[in-house]
Amino acid sequence: MKQTTKARLWRYGVNGAIILALIALTFAADWGIIRHNFWNPLGVALSDGNWGDLITIGAINTVKYTVIAFAGGLALAVVLALMRMSPIATLRVIATAYVEFFRGLPALVVILFMGFGVPIAFQWSPPGGLVGAGLLALIMVAGAYMAETLRAGIQAVPKGQTEAARSLGMGPMSTMFKVVLPQAFRVVIPPLTNEFVLLIKDTALLSVIGAEFGDRELTTVARDFQSSGVTAGTATSLVQAALLYLVITIPLTQLVAWLERRQRKATR
Asked: Other C-beta atoms within 10 Å of 244: how many?
């Protein structure tokens, strides 16, 4: 038997097995129970369902917290990236230690530490209560990751650009902020956009430290609907929250793909 025939039969076999498994699953599942648990009609109703709080409180706060964490993390990343490239060894050591420390810790641990550990140890709470503490933790972790991305972007800028700026009489700081950093940001826009998408999902970690009613993000709102309301005891609100996350993240992931394609064309 020819190799092409064997490959074709193998593909047919795999596809047939998948179709048979799906058919068996379709007939074996109790669709009434599945619908009640994952898509309860009372919860998905447009008038009195869960959508109102999930969108007006959960989704809006999720986007707001993401923007705050991203902006704060980016500002911190610029400082850390410049420190890591500084000719002063002490600054390089401090920045390297910070980046390695926070990249090595789970974001959840940092959030719990800022929410409960810091107030007890230092008798000081970050502004904004528990949500503020959680956002500060996300900024600290995101800053460590984005610093490395930004440093790679700065190193990708040709040295000739710096030399040309300096030959025109620009100082080191002016050269960095007016010539190098703008070009570096253009290089790292796709990975930074990817970091923004990751931050959207990381805001769900804020649910572990609690929040006031109007400060809840999407996961916390969905979790509260699991214990109260018309969909209590079911996973309907989690499915609704998952759909809203996808509505937010899928356009951004497509934007990242488009930016990467555009960047590849520009470098050809």
From this structure: 19
At 147, the amino acid letter reads A
CA distances from 85 to 4, 91, 96, 152, 183 (A): 55, 9, 10, 11, 16
Asked if 205 and 134 count as a contact pair (C-beta separation under 8 A), the reply is yes
| Separation between Cα atoms, residue 70 and residue 104, nearest integer Å | 19
Spatial contact of 207 and 219, defined as CB atoms under 8 Å apart: yes
What is the pTM assigned to this prediction? 0.87
Helices and strands: H and E segment counts in the chain = 14, 0
Query: Tens digits of per-residue pLDDT, 172-181?
Result: 888 998 999 9
For the CA atoms of 52, 56, 61, 62, the dihedral, rounded to the nearest 10 degrees, stands at 60
In degrees, rounded to 5, the angle at the alpha carbon of residue 200 between the alpha carbons of residues 194 and 202 is 100
Distance CA 199, CA 1 (A): 53
Q: How far apart are CA 147 and CA 140, in angstroms?
A: 11
Tell which residue, 72, 70, 69, 100, has the closest CA to residue 84.
100
* Per-residue pLDDT reduced to its tens digit, 159-209: 888 888 888 888 888 899 899 999 998 889 888 988 999 999 999 999 998
Note whether 60 and 51 are within 8 A (CB): no
* Amino acid type, 115: G
Count other Cβ atoms within 10 Å, centred on residue 128: 14
Torsion angle (degrees, nearest 10) of CA 201, 38, 43, 36: -170
